[in-house]
Predict the structure.
Amino acid sequence: MATGLPVDSIAVEGGKSVVDEVIWVVGDEAILKSDVEAMRKQAEEEGTRWKGDPDCAIPEQLAVQKLYLHQAAIDSIEVTDAEISADVEQYLDYWTNLAGSREKLEEYKKATISQLRNELRDALRDRKTMQKMREQLVKDITVSPAEVRRYFKDLPADSIPFVPTEVEVQILTQMPRIEPEEINRVKDELREYTDRVNKGEASFATLARLYSEDPGTARRGGELDYTGRGMLDPAFAAVAFNLTDPKTVSKIVESEFGYHIIQLIDKRGDKVKVRHILRKPQVSSDAMTKAMERLDSIRTDIVDGKFTFEAGASVISDDKDTRNNYGLMANVMDGARTSKFRMQDLPSEVARAVEKMEIGDVSAPFEMIDGKGKTVCAIVKLKNRVNGHKATITEDFQVMKDVVLNKRREEVLHEWVVDKIKSTYVRINDKYKNCDFEYQGWIR
């Protein structure tokens, strides 16, 4: 079967011709030596370790990726920009922290932030597509309780999974009062930005990059990709979905995150694409002190038995996410909600507070940043703690079931790759034919 692909391709780098060798062909897709080197460099930056010889493992992984992406195209599995934008920004933040600044990052990567963002978007789209494809292939895999018991029955003790310490925490918060003068200051700033856009003195995107306090969108000129109404703050969504003219800047909108102005980019079906600028009123030290004093008084009443923590969390707390559940914090893991947290999964301020507490203790008041990015005052109660231990069927069945389920899924995926290789054209450079590959069938 001919692919029409050359053995070598020519790239231009710094004005010089550089030979970039085709080392594998999978179907009608080529894997270049430069692809391998790029993945090797990325792995080094992320601290990834390869099983076996990287010179063999890296091209094999790239080849497996081609198989998944090809099947995803057949099955019409797609990934939207909205699904990967947060991951792109997380990577940029990680790289920026390593480099020391955005300027140093651009110098090290020899590319602008905009170019890096585009490259990351493409790479992460492929990664997310492969993840969806893998999930599709194993979505119907299940294991029975009997299979779990059989798997662990004769397993050596040192192979039994270790369950880290888990805690259940209740929280009661107070939002410091923001003075009207501070709210007016923020609104005046937003009115000034609107005026500058209307007068043509600056673009909305430029002002968003300079002044917006939403770290997830400011770098993109305030841009939120196509988003459904249900994914947005209700007040924000009500204004965003009513915009009709891309040249118009919205009125000032108050949300749980702060105050916004919004500009329409496009509408597509039941989704909207907008830019926004977020400004957050600052809490004064006097307001913070008063909130801490109020919480200290609430804690005293709880400790003295005047009312329970649960009652206070239900009636007094400003935390809408936990108020209806007696203050019990919820953790989302693998798409499922649970009240159990590993210490590293708690907000850092909460983790520090509960680290040395006994079950039933109520902490002293402390400051923290909530999920909306706002500074609040909080007290917490340690509802339960289960110290780290070797998993047991009676106490940790779900943990042990997940181990067996993941093993079964990996077996199914391995079998799928081996079968896919059999029906796919593969050509490998001779120098890779002595490799000890993870999957059988590459060499024919």
